[in-house]
Amino acid sequence: MAESTSHVQDGSSTFHADLHAAHGSGHDHHHEQGFLAKYVFSQDHKVIAKQFLFTGMLSAVVGIGLSMLFRLQLAFPDTPFPILESLLGRWAPDGVIDPSFYLALVTMHGTLMVFFVLTAGLSGTFSNYLIPLQVGARDMASGFLNMLSYWAFFLSTVIMFASFFVESGPASGGWTIYPPLSALPQAMSGSGMGMTLWLTSMVFFIASGLLGGINYITTVINLRTKGMTLERLPLNIWAFFLTAILVILSFPVLLAAALLLFLDRSLGTSFYLSDIYIGGEVLHHAGGSPVLFQHLFWFLGHPEVYIVLLPALGIASEVISVNSRKPIFGYKAMVGSMIAIAVLSFIVWAHHMFVTGMNPFLGTVFMLFTLIIAVPSAIKAFNYITTLWRGNLRLTPAMLFAIGLVSFFITGGITGIILGNAALDIPMHDTYFVTAHFHLVMGSASAFGLFAGVYHWFPKMFGKMMNPRLGYIHFWFTFIGLYLVFFPQHFQGLGGVARHYYQFTAFDFMKQFVDLSKYITYAAWIGGAAQLIFFFNFFNSLFWGKKAPQNPWKANTLEWTTPINPGHGNWPGEIPTVYRWPYDYSKPGLEDDYAPQHIPDEDLRYEPGQAPPKPTPAPRREETPSETEGSDNF
Amino acid sequence: MDAQLLITLTKVLLVIILVLVAFNLSMVFKIKSIDPFKNWNATKINAALLMVFMVLGFIFASWSSVKWAPTFTLVTDPASEHGVPLDAMFWRTMVVCILVTIITNFLLFYFSWKYQERPGQKAHFYPHNNKLELIWTLVPAVVMTLLIADGVKNWHSIMAPDDEIKENALDVEFYARQFDWTIRYGGADQELGQTHIKYIDNATANQLGFNYDDPRTHDDIVVTEVHLPVNVPVHMHIKSQDVLHSATLAHFRVKMDAVPGMPTNFWFTPTETTAARRERLGNPDFNYELSCQQICGSSHWNMRRVVVVETEEEFQAWLASQKPSYQAYKEKFENKNTPSEPAPVEAPAEEAEPANASAEDGDDRATVSTR
Ligand code: HEM
Ligand SMILES: [Cu+2]
Ligand SMILES: [Cu+2]
């Protein structure tokens, strides 16, 4: 390993040399690049990361906006809001949202939030930004593929947004687009052109994910700087790495599923369709199975929820450790449980299908695996909490969001053991209980990971500090708002209220929940409005914020060793060498409460009396002093 | 009216004034570089808020849970046999969930408050403790194993009931389409005759696609209200003619997708009649309800059917009063081809009448789709 590491080091030095040859000397080589090359078709991972962030933020604005609209319908069924008509035109005749359009709103909200915000926006931003900086590489393995990855994502976003403007409306069969509903334009208008665009958009999205994923994996494996063994990777890099593997293995299956659906829709094949009478005629399709689609979809779909969550958990690990001034508790257990989650997430998909008519025996098997996955999840939660124990906690906005994330992860994840129990899932399936579960554990927790990441790395990304006070206010409104929105949905779920209902008024046992819906809607609107604080803070700080110091949080990781506004290539001089793991916070005997990864032991400041272990005469750059036994052959 | 307008206007004005004042203040502070919150200790405030949030959160969560508990149709007061052990298992699992949630959230917020940054406080370097980690791997693993064992048992007894139950079960078809349910009984022979979508013919009101060449169809009864005898196992035959639907009987803990091209099944035994439940709850308007809980299109939210559970005698009487749809079909459309039925004269008189349940069904559909 040591050998290959140094080989890698050579490789990146060459890259570095190339870079300098191309751009002249010194790190300040921006001036020679045109605007297009620097900001638009950039191959610099830092610029691409910001592009992902801004595009993701745009999707977030739209996605959250859609939810504000359909919450209005749920709280005030049949109440006309004239403003809606002027806003939505024929989709809200007389100011009442049309039932088909309600489904379109829900579908597009889910699609945008799950894929465009919490997958591309989160992973795309932070994997891109942090992997090279934290493993000590000058850029991604392939800057070009990385650029393509962004532009594929951009195209996919444009197509998805375009689907709002087609005559028959955007896709409306739910974010899981189950056929036959999604396959037959006769079944709902959203299954026409809107669905075609949805599928097209997802093809580009998948391409983007694969191009990005390949790059993340390659970079983590090959471009680590000298001394950066796998055991010394920050946990968020581990999370991004495993996420990329999940992406690579699961998204192709979604592509296959989408392709077959596309064929069913346009070429008359029968992969998912059979024995259908609709619109007054018998369709010729025979022999297909709608359940097949569900298997394919959830083979992606379940890993996807971890694709969304793992990066957030990784970010939380880093943020919590830095701000607790303590090592993350149980580093190996954290890595181990992430690996376990990644592996197990491929064999639990059918817990979304217990009552689809699937063979009950399969249900048993999937219940088994599903409840096993709760164990590594529990370990992670316990380890976060123990990290806080006896720390010296700096409650920065990033830290608050990370603490909030853990709370959501627990409160939302725990209901997984009810839903994962096939028998209990019979009544719960497709009710608001599921909505509550996944909005807390996936939606809220991952969104908090995104926020924590932005607050924490904003100084690195933009060279400015965000206003912490606005950060606190934003945190409190969002934290309370999300709990108020999603916790009561457990009650609605236990009351039997079904998902995807335009209104609850048709059923006696659901009617009583209209009132509760009102409160939820108020909370949603307040929480939604609070995001304006974030946007204000973000852009205000971006332009007029206080200048950031080089290492504002006194963190150990390598990204803080770059200049405040790093250029392409990240480090003006040599790439730093790594001497220890990233979590030596408050190590006994040291004067400072942190020990950056790139400072050799003999250069650290020790407390008087804590005589530094006499530096061995060996020259420092030859062999990396290993902290942990056996780390070299990890 | 006017008074209200005035009040609203005043409120709006007040808000505007407040915003302006806040804005002005902030500008003044900014220009004079005064920091009015200089002496506020953000760490202390946030840490305290975390504790307050936790305490209020627990109180609020408990209070609201208790307040809403009577509305928990899915986990209280089951009306089916398998619902009883299922609900019990739910509450057992829920106790575990609540305990874990409270304990871990408590520690999370408590530690966040207790160990907030203080001058002179040094964090304790504590990178791992294998014993501790082993404990909290094993404990959840054991708890999960117990839950799985419980779950598997219940799952099997629900999905694959004993042969005895299967043999004695009443066959009822739940037939879904956009956007309604049609219910079918086997009639006198207690067997459901053959249907297929290729036989569907709106002209003859044959909406389930009866193959009338199959004599078993001749006594089949088609209705739009579910009637079930109490304490008799029911075998649901669930079908869809167009997209996915889901036959959901919340009170009976029943849910199963209706899949076009693949009939699905569910067995359950209702244990309380509608009348008895109405009396017990003191609610004369109570009804069991059938709903669709798999997104199926614009009127997905409105696929309601009333479910009437009654005594065996009432059920048989009701069943006997229903006219097999084949008869209606014969009277209306087949009169010329069936010499055995000497009723060609009667037919014209009935022509304007809707043909039994199927046509009534069609009417329902029309009302639904106006939405
Ligand atoms: C303790 C571990 C967990 C278990 C046992 C679990 C179990 C389940 C089950 C069984 C369902 C299907 C419920 C139904 O549709 O009836 C479900 C739904 C879902 N879960 Fe989890 N879950 C766990 C953790 C998570 C995590 C960590 C995430 C995300 C990061 C997540 C995201 C979701 C999503 C998005 C859905 C709903 C998908 C949909 O139907 O639209 N779950 N979960
Ligand atoms: Cu899942
Ligand atoms: Cu439906």
Based on helices, strands and strand pairing, what is the structural class of chain A?
mainly alpha
Main beta sheet of chain A? 2 strands, antiparallel
Do you know the CATH architecture of chain A? Up-down Bundle
Number of domains of chain A: 1
How are the strands ordered across the major sheet of chain A?
1-2
Would you mind describing this structure in some detail?
The complex is a heterodimer of chains A (634) and B (371). Chain A has helices at residues 2-23, 35-40, 45-75, 82-88, 99-135, 143-162, 193-222, 235-266, 290-324, 331-344, 360-388, 397-413, 416-419, 422-428, 432-462, 468-494, 508-511, 514-544, and strands at residues 277-278, 281-282. In chain A, α10 (331-344) packs antiparallel against α11 (360-388), α12 packs antiparallel against α15 (432-462) and α16 runs antiparallel to α18 (514-544). By secondary structure, chain A is mainly alpha-helical. Chain A contains 18 helices and two strands. Chain A is globular. A two-stranded antiparallel ribbon of chain A has the order 1-2. Chain A has one domain (2-13, 43-547): Cytochrome C Oxidase, Chain A (Up-down Bundle). Chain B has 371 residues and is an alpha+beta fold. Chain B has a domain at 169-334: Immunoglobulin-like, CATH 2.60.40. Chain B is built from ten helices and ten strands. A five-stranded mixed β-sheet of chain B has the order 3-2-1-5-8. In chain B, α2 (42-68) packs antiparallel against α3 and α3 runs antiparallel to α4 (130-159). Chain B is elongated. Chain B starts with a helix and ends with a helix. Chains A and B meet through α5, β1, α9, α10 and α11 of A and α2, α3, α4, β7 and β9 of B. One copper (II) ion binds at residues 245, 292, 294, 296, 300, 303 of chain B. Protoporphyrin IX containing FE binds next to α9, α11, α13, α14 and α15 of chain A.
